Amino acid sequence: MSKEVFSQISPSEFFYRNRDLAGFSNPTRSLYTSVREFVENALDACDHKKILPDIHLSIKAVNPEQADPKHYILTVKDNGPGIDPEHIPLAFGTVLYGSKFGLKQARGMFGLGATMAILYGQITTNKPVTVKSCSDGKTLDEFVMLLDIQKNKPVIQKHTTKEGSKTGLAVSIVLEGDYSKAGLKIRDYVYQTSLITPYASITFEDPSGEKFHYARIVKDMPRPPTVIKPHPHGIDVETIRRMITDTHYQIPAIDNKMIDKIKKELSLKKNISHKEILERAQKRWSDISRPVRTVVSVMSFLNIDFEGLKKIRIDDIDVANKIITYWDFGESQSHAVELNADSPYYKQLASTVQGDTLLTFLTKRFQRVGPTTAEKFCEFAKFKPDKRIGSMTNEELVKLADALQKFEEFLAPDPSCLAPLGEEPLSKGIMKFFNPEFAAVWQRNASAYSGFPFIVEMGIAYGGDIPPNGLKVYRFANRIPLLYDEGSDVVLKIVNETEWARYKIKGDPPLVIVSHICSTRIPYKTVGKENVADRPELERELKNALQYLARKLAVHMSRQGAADMAKKRANLYSKYVPLIAQFATELAGKKKEPNYNQLIRMGSEIEEQV
Amino acid sequence: MRLKNKSNAKTAEARKKRLLSMLEQQGLNIYEHLDKGKFPQFVIPSRSVSNIVYDKKIRQYILGSASAVRSSRNMSQLRSYTQLAWLAFFVNRLVREGKSSTLRDIYYSSQAFSIDFEDQPESDNIIVDLEAVLTSPREEFHIFPEERSSVFGDLTIEYTVPGYEGKRMNLSDHPDGYLIGPSLSSAELVDTSAELVIAIEKGGLFTRFVEEKVHKKFKAIIVDTAGQAPRSTRNLLRRLNNEMGLPVVILADGDVYGEHIAMVIKSGSANAAHLRELTVPDAKWLGVWATDIEKYKLPTIPMTESDIKRIYDLQKDPRYQEGNWKKQLEVFLKLKRKAELEAFSKYGLTNITDKYLPAKLEESKSF
Predict the structure, then answer these.
(1) Quick one: which of A30, A450, B172, B184 has the most CB atoms within 10 Å?
(2) With respect to CATH, is domain B150-364 assigned 3.30.70.660?
(3) Residue spans in chain A of domains classed CATH 1.10.8.50
(4) Chain A contact present for B58, CB below 8 A
(5) Does B89 touch chain A (CB under 8 A)?
(6) Residue of chain B with shortest Cα separation from A597
(7) Under DSSP, is residue A368 helix (H, G, I), strand (E, B) or coil?
(8) CA distance A370 to A463
(9) Chain B contacts of A578, Cβ < 8 Å?
């Protein structure tokens, strides 16, 4: 196996290379993004531990007299589980590279976004980050840290410990921002986040000292998402390659630790001969671990004992060409030894090095795939079920990924990894926020696009305190408000395509639509992650949800219309019937007017009979 | 002296009685409905295009048998129902008190009774509705249009309007002619020495005809229709024809509109298909014909797009399907040029009365 060299880049370089992607392109956007990252981390932490969140956000200008853009102190405090003191420097003082193999719905990818915010603060103001954490409810640790940008290591400037009373985390950074421009978006963000997180209490204190408080509306936490394996339809070639490497056998490094491990597994007391080692291994073969089997197999081919083993480094085991390449430290040169295909160890080596069979790989690493489905798939994809995944060529991997996409007999993805808000909390949130004359919510059943499960929740509210300024759409994805790039979003598309007149909605109605899409992967259109692409499956679910709610609204509107109509009728008949009576009396040459009261009453009631 | 043919005429007084009786019937009907807690309604003959047909027998447009109900039970009709009831009530007052009104005056009068017409076209429409309900022209309701045409010639009338009852007047006493207004329309026609009625489209030529003593030379009553003849004028022409037995001839511009002015006097308009007594089926169109343009070498001007479109429209009208009416339309379409009555001035100011009129009157004896 060839060695690849990764060139090291400094985190600040990393930051500058990725600042646009991560949402730090200018002081306005950076302030907004930093608020989001910290607030979302705080909410995620509380969700994770099933704690009803209490979030305090404050933004204070370092020097209020100065003009924007200027330095701001951004502080986000939560009542979450906190972080163990020993993990704090690493969690906040280094650029983390998170790896996610399991799938579950979360607001953000923990780590990167917050670290980018910290890094941005440090780069623009050269001020440290302050982290206060209490994870046991007794002690409060406070760290003041800088990132050593060259070494990607935290530099702790101050660490104090004092008595704490409840768990929680508070992070405070100083950064360059432009609140005059970002303020509206941030207030919007806090408002909308409170709407979609009715179980949280959120307070925001802005630079002018004004407080925006959103009290907790419901006391029940929504069911938390579970971590699940990926669905075959949601997989591309690159993901398969990563999954195989992950399962794939790695050539064990041979060191004293490994030799001790072999001795332990074979219950060897002292150095014994090559022959004795192999005999002992044969007897216990089924009990010993894979790395040990591999090393013993190598020892058999190279015909060496432990002493010999210590002098070499295995570089490559090329099963296909039956060659082991190793480096001899003593001779300082590389050797290649041919493998005897008849040896029982060859098969062992081959199977170990080449990893699981395709059948095992499919059933073990994917959701909703059992042995029967796996076999059917192999037949469909024209792979042998016992094909070793480690032996697959690039072309075969592409073919495999392609077939995984196309095979239609996989069951729909498991939605248990999703955490929709639920109809009741959503409804309560809408009632509290808009105090409408009419509201309805609906949670659709789980559906999937390309192997990613998703659930659409939607709410509609009409009249009441909603101003008659036309239709307003609040878009959410995984409990995050989407505030930018509204125009090209799939939800907006669906709403705009709706013929509202059919639902008795005209002009600039006092109408609010709340749309929440939950998915392990939201199909964002752009890296900005503010607008959702129009996948057909998603579009269909959104459309169904909206139509259902619009019909409910139409029923309400009809009822309302009928009541209005009855009132209008009553007014009209009270106005016109006496006039008609007056004219008819003179025309007929009568002195006394006819008794028309009965007719006024009938006229007012007639519509309900029809 | 030609005396009025009484047996053939409804006197003004008789028509008034009939109208008042119909109004009272309507009033009683509504009154009883209200008293019994029933929704009153008007039955209005439908004036939609599909219900307007040409009656060859009486030679005018008439309404078919379809009718619409305007009911106070229907909320969307309640307002226009009340408007119609008000108009009947108001007309009753006008007729009883012998007062006259105009279309515009009706629109403004409504406001005093909390009857809200949105605009004058809406009140005009309600007036037409009442005409249809009572099958009487609005002139009998004492409602007149603002525009008025004139009449001149030896015709003695007797007023019936309050304050002038029994007073007689000869319509050749004033050289400007007499306005065909409410009092003239309601007057009895007593006698005349005239043997002919000449209806002419334009006021300028009407004056010329008076100056040239056409009324004497041709023993004629001259009527200025001022363009498309108003209903009171058409009604007067009909009465001159019917009651006094005078033939009616029409002179209009040499274009498609002139031809149609003659046709409307002769056989009515689709707009007034709900009414009778507005036509003179034996009236004759003297000219100016399309063929006269060539025959008399008249100076012409080219037709406009809308002139030509109008020809195509009229070609679909059942009354233009035969004879001279059809032929003249075709010639107009071929020429694509038109001539005005004034075109005769090219050959001298009196050419039209000295040459053209006698020639055409002579010619008219043969059609």
Answers:
(1) A30
(2) no
(3) 232-246+356-406
(4) no
(5) yes
(6) B37
(7) coil
(8) 52
(9) none
Residues with Cβ within 8 Å of residue B363, at least 6 apart in sequence: none
Structure-block tokens of residue B326: 């059809």
Place of tokens 């969700």: A47
Which residues of B are less than 8 Å from A576 in CB distance?
Answer: 72, 78-79, 81-82
Whether residues A599 and B34 touch (CB distance < 8 A) is answered with yes
**What gap in Å lies between CA A346 and CA A326, rounded to an integer?**
17
The C-alpha atoms of residue A610 and residue A406 are separated, in whole angstroms, by: 56
Helix (H) or strand (E) holding B219: none
Q: Does B83 touch chain A (CB under 8 A)?
A: no
Structure letter (DSSP) for residue B312: H
B78–A573 CB contact, under 8 Å? yes
What is the fold, at CATH topology level, of the domain defined by B2-144?
Arc Repressor Mutant, subunit A (1.10.10)
- Decide if A438 contacts A556 (C-beta within 8 A): yes
User: With an 8 Å Cβ cutoff, is B126 touching chain A?
Assistant: no
Q: Of these residues, B108, B164, B257, B296, which one is catalytic?
A: B108
Using a cut of 0.80, tell me whether the model's pTM lies above it.
no
Output the six-digit token pair for B249. Answer: 């001839």
What is the spatial distance between Cα A246 and Cα A332, in angstroms, rounded to a whole number?
31
**Which residues face A333 on adjacent strands?**
A328
Catalytic annotation present for B296? no
Structure confidence by residue, pLDDT tens digits, A290-312: 778 888 888 888 888 888 888 88
> What six digits make up the tokens of B39?
């929704």
Q: What tens-digit pLDDT sequence spans chain B (367 residues)?
A: 445 444 334 567 788 899 999 999 999 999 999 999 999 999 998 887 788 888 888 888 888 888 889 999 988 899 999 999 999 999 999 999 888 888 888 998 888 888 889 888 899 999 999 999 998 888 888 888 776 789 999 999 999 888 898 899 999 989 889 999 888 888 999 999 999 999 999 888 898 899 989 999 999 999 999 888 888 899 999 999 999 999 999 999 999 999 999 999 998 887 788 888 889 999 999 989 999 998 999 988 899 888 898 999 889 888 898 899 999 999 999 999 999 888 888 888 888 888 899 999 998 887 7
Which CATH number is A415-549 given?
A: 3.30.230.10
- Nearest CB to A584 within list B30, B38, B75: B30
Among chain A residues, the shortest Cα distance to B78 is held by: A576
Fold of A11-214: Heat Shock Protein 90 (3.30.565)
Which residues on chain B are in Cβ contact (under 8 Å) with A588? 24, 27-28, 30-31
Cβ within 8 Å, pair A603-B73: yes
* H or E stretch at A501: none
How many angstroms separate the CA of residue A589 from the nearest CA in chain B?
7
What backbone torsions phi and psi does residue B140 show, to the nearest 5 degrees? -70, -20
From the list A470, A544, A474, A417, the residue with the least C-alpha distance to A196 is A474
In chain B, list all ranges with CATH 1.10.10.10: 2-144
Residue showing tokens 């980050």: A129
CB < 8 Å to A607, chain B: 75
Q: Looking at the complex, does the CB of residue B92 fall below 8 Å from at least one CB of chain A?
A: yes
Name the residue among A206, A246, A207, A209 with its Cα closest to residue A102.
A246
Query: What fold characterizes domain A232-246+356-406?
Result: Helicase, Ruva Protein; domain 3 (1.10.8)
User: Quick check: B311 and B329 in contact, CB under 8 A?
Assistant: yes
DSSP for A90-108?
HHHHS-------SB---SS
Taking CA atoms, what residue in B is nearest to A570?
A: B75
CB atoms within 10 A of CB A302: 16
Q: How far apart are CA A139 and CA A164, in angstroms?
A: 5
Amino acid B179 reads L
A593 to chain B, closest Cα gap in Å: 8
